Structure formats: C-alpha cells, structure tokens
Amino acid sequence: MTPIDYTTLRGELVDSVLLLPGDDGFEESLHRWSTLAEKKSAAVALVQTAQDIATTVKWAVRNNAPLAVKGGGHATSGSSSIEGGLVVDLSKMRRVTVNVQGNTILCEGGCIWEDVDMAAADYGLAAVGGTVNHTGVGGLTLGGGYGWLSGRYGLSIDNLIYVTLVLADGRVVKVSRDENEDLFWAVRGAGQAFGVAVEFCFQAYPQPNPVTAGILAFKTERMDELVDFVNYFHEELLDDSSALGFGFTAPPPLKVPLCFVVAFYNGKKEAFDAHYSKLLGLEPVMNTVHEMPYCQVNTVLNDQGNDHGTRRAQNAASIQMPLQRSLFRKTFNKWQEFINSTEGTNQSALLYEIFSQEKTCEVPLTATATVMRSPKMNVSISTRWLTDEQDQVCLAYSRSMSNLLREEGGGAEGNFEAYANYSYVESRPRRLFGANYNRLVELKGKYDPKNVFRSWHDLSGTKDVKLFNQE
Ligand SMILES: Cc1cc2nc3c(=O)[nH]c(=O)nc-3n(C[C@H](O)[C@H](O)[C@H](O)COP(=O)(O)OP(=O)(O)OC[C@H]3O[C@@H](n4cnc5c(N)ncnc54)[C@H](O)[C@@H]3O)c2cc1C
C-alpha cells in the first residue's frame, strides 16, 4: 500500500494547522488524560472552523486515512487517538457564548466543562455537565452525560437544543428536534459514531443559590453502616437537590483503604447538614464539605486521583438497588486483593453513583439513542497504575470487576447494562444500546456507510465485540 502523504492536507486547510511528527507541539498533542490512551498518530489537524473540519474529514475519506476525533481527551479506551492515522483535534475550539434571553449556552466542540461552568456562572446560570470539570463537553455529551444537576434537569443530552455536525461525507448540518431529527435522535447517546460536533447549544438554568459538596472519608470498619445509609439515602432522601457517590480507594500518602462518600446538595451548608445528618453521624475521619458557587462544585473531585497523565482505565456496570452489603464487600475484597498484589494501584477506586433517575426516566427509552434511562445505578470502576508492563493485569482486573458487578448486581437485566462513556473493556455495542441498537445500525448505514467514525463503539453492525484498545 502506498504510504499516505499527509502534507497535502496542509495546503487545503484555511484557518487550521496540520501538525506532523517533528513539528513543534506535535508530541504534546498526542497526550491524553490516560497515557494508556496515547497512540502515535501520523498527523494531527488542530482545527479552528467547521469548514476545515469538513475539509479534513473529506481528505481522510479520499485518502483512506484512519480518523479519530479528540475533544477533552478523557476516553481511556483510546477512541480519541489513532495509531498511524489522522486526529481531528478540537482543543483550539473552546469558545462559549451565553444567551441570557433564552438562558442558552452555545459552546464549541472542543470545550471542557470548566469553560461552560465558568461562562454560565457569569450570568447566574448553570448547565448539566460532568462532575469533573476538565472532562470534554464533546465526548461526555454525545454519550449521554450526567452530573450533579441531572436529578433536576435530566441528562446533558436532555438539555441539548441543537448540535452542528460535520458528517462523514463532509456536509455541515444542524441537528435538532426540527432539523435532521433522525440524526438528533442518534447523537443523543451515540453521537461519537456519527460525525464531528462543531458546536453544541444547551438549555441552561438559573442557579442563584450556592451549593454544598465535598468528600467524607470513613474507616472501612464502617462499611456495612455506610451501605445501609446509602440504601436509606436512595429510598428516603434522594431528590432533585441531592446525589452522592460511594466507594473506596487508598489515597496517598498513607495508602490505607478508606470508604468515602462524595456528597452534593443544591443548597446552603445548613440544608446539607440536615439532609446528610445520618451520614455525618457515622464519624468521618476526613470531611471537606463546604458551601461554594455552583461553578466550583465540579472541581471537588479534580484532585482526588483525577489528575492528567498516568495509566488508567475506566469501566462500568449498572446495579439494581438496594445495594447488597455482601456485594459491596465482595467488590471491596477483590479491589483490595488487586491493589495489594499490583504495585502503584492504590488510587484505583470504585464509585457507586447514587443519582436520582426520575427526571432522566421521564424521557422514554427509545426517544434518544442512550438507554441510560433506568432506575439502576451506575458503578464507575476506575483503575490506575504505573507502567505499560502492568497493562494486562490491570485491564484483566477492570474487566473481571465489571463482570462481577454485572453478574451479581443485576446489571445485565433490562436495557441499561452500563454507561457507554465508561465501558470500553470488551463492551458489546448491542448490549450497550439494547433496544436502540438496531435503529443505530440502520442510521449508521445511512449517514456513515463507510464507518469513518468507528473509533468509539463500532455501530456498523459488523462487530459486536470491541476489545480494549483495539485498533
Ligand atoms: C475523571 C473523569 C470523570 C468523569 N465524570 C463523568 C461525569 O460526571 N459524567 C459523565 O457523564 N461522564 C463522566 N466521565 C466520562 C466521560 O463522559 C468520558 O470519558 C468522555 O468520553 C469524555 O469526553 P472527552 O471529550 O473528554 O474525551 P475524548 O477522549 O476527547 O473523546 C471521547 C470520545 O468522544 C469523541 N468526541 C469528543 N468530542 C467530540 C466532538 N466534539 N465531536 C465528535 N466526537 C467527539 C471522541 O472521538 C471519542 O470517541 C468522566 C470521565 C473521567 C475520566
């Protein structure tokens, strides 16, 4: 096969830069949040406009160049990088415009949530984004997206008014309830497989009051009581103002296993204290809870092992509530065995995410591509390690933890098996998209018959198994 001459793309770009190996900034552009996801691309187009994105996509198709799109760079699967291929890198496209008349936010496809949270706050507004503000708006939204405000306003995609998308044939289209409705259905949960999102328009909401949030750490001896609290919280307290994550990790410097709760309340500290009084009564050994403006809340987890630049894999499973003490302990024991036997993995964590699904489930399951509309809760399996020699053992742990939760937590039942944005390890698109899979495959055939956008979950209908980091 003749090698692809990427330099010819350079001359076609009007406002954007093409980086090739050896160019200033090329190596830097290959970095991802997880070093596991970094690959040696042949070229990186640092795009600035929809037109240059369209030119790049058309050029890639014409030249048979494998393509990947990079938003915030947080996918641990490597779906935003490509070995020997061309990356459409959106990191220069981070403009945010707030429209105070309609409380809407227009943001470019390379924004991270910090850009949106801060711009919205200038006008007393907030949007439904993720709980860690350096994640990308692009990947998070196109896969569904949820955060602290989801109990009140639903998923990020439920607040999406329109997206401007560059399709596989290079057309630039507006996709909304009224224009290209079938694509609007597909991008709300599986957008990564349908094009490059140039800009998103979101509904935002007034957020006049401060919120209260933080991390409470507990000795593991409290585990059963904490599980009981989490079930009580789920039954009696969970509402559109509150949400929590519950799990375990062994943070530095002591690296002693701890249970922890990251708790959120959309209100003042006194209201938080009243809402979580039973939890506070369990004698946390550390408590960082404090009142803050909403735009700060998505920084609370930033420094909790979520810094950039180490080897990590994210994986997931969904579980039925109530959470069983025995299952929680089993996952804890499995994790502890893993961190004790694998050097430098102590910051690996499990997080059972207890968010109200009421608003999310008001939208019918087949109304958008995501099937993440279920009373089941998501569990985030976060594995962190040091070197590439440890990759196989760490990925095997991540996979087997996901299997354990799926088999014993009831995750395989119903339509929602795991969050598509978390699950990459041997995830099967048919299972991830359940009732919506066939329609997705059909639309994929209509809009991307050559499967140009295939680095995320492959929806061509020809592959039902995607192995971790598979090319
Ligand atoms: C620390 C951490 C915290 C997280 N917290 C949350 C959370 O609170 N809520 C939640 O819902 N998820 C959360 N996630 C998961 C998150 O949704 C995914 O990791 C998501 O893929 C991140 O998107 P990105 O743009 O940063 O990643 P990338 O790696 O840049 O992209 C991921 C995928 O999306 C595609 N993509 C990105 N931008 C675009 C675009 N503009 N157009 C077309 N395709 C695009 C890429 O091609 C790739 O396939 C978290 C992840 C991490 C690592």
Explain what you see:
This protein has 471 residues and is of the alpha+beta class. It has three domains: 7-89, Uridine Diphospho-n-acetylenolpyruvylglucosamine Reductase, domain 2, CATH 3.30.43; 96-206, Uridine Diphospho-n-acetylenolpyruvylglucosamine Reductase, domain 3 (2-Layer Sandwich), CATH 3.30.465; 211-408, Vanillyl-alcohol Oxidase, Chain A, domain 3 (3-Layer(aba) Sandwich). Helix content is 29%, strand content 22%. The chain is built from 16 helices and 19 strands. The protein has helices at 7-10, 26-29, 50-62, 113-121, 137-142, 150-153, 181-190, 223-237, 269-275, 277-280, 294-297, 325-341, 358-362, 391-408, 429-433, 437-447, and strands at residues 17-19, 43-46, 67-70, 86-89, 96-99, 104-108, 125-126, 160-166, 172-176, 196-203, 205-206, 211-218, 242-249, 258-265, 286-287, 290-292, 311-319, 349-355, 377-385. Strands 12, 13, 14, 15, 16, 17, 18 and 19 form an eight-stranded antiparallel beta sheet that branches. The protein has a five-stranded antiparallel beta sheet with strand order 5-6-10-8-9. A four-stranded mixed beta sheet has the order 1-2-4-3. Helix 12 packs antiparallel against helix 14. The protein is globular, with a radius of gyration of 21 Å. The two termini are 18 Å apart. The chain binds flavin-adenine dinucleotide. Flavin-adenine dinucleotide is lined by residues 33, 68-75, 79-80, 90, 109, 130-132, 135-136, 138-140, 142-143, 145-147, 192, 196-197, 306, 314, 421-422, 455-456.
